[in-house]
Design a protein that fits this description.
Radius of gyration: 17 Å
Distance between the termini: 48 Å
Helix content: 10-25%
Structural class: alpha+beta
CATH class of one domain: Alpha Beta
CATH topology of one domain: Cytidine Deaminase, domain 2
Largest sheet: 3 strands, antiparallel
CATH architecture of one domain: 3-Layer(aba) Sandwich
Strand content: 15-25%
Length: 110
Amino acid sequence: MEKNKELEVVRVKMITDKKLYSEYPLTSPEAVCKFVSKELADYDREVMCVLNCSTKGQVLNMNVVSMGTIDACLVTGRELFKSAILSNAASVILVHNHPSGDYHPSREDR
């Protein structure tokens, strides 16, 4: 074992001047669909996103967590929550698209 190994220190800095992605709170599934439909409409493959929200339900930012194939998207917990923690989000909303246009939840969605 080497004696001169040092522990690498990682620092996280919060930004105090928050800017909102949207000032309007997302209070229903319909509001979420309306909000993200324009953002996700042009993707030709499945995309998983996280909306990081304030305590009032306002969107702080949107993070694309994973880009998959035409009918699948692989996601892990680490990617899901990393941006939420770094954004100091009070809540998150997870969304993904269906490029096929069929909006019924698949077995994998459930």
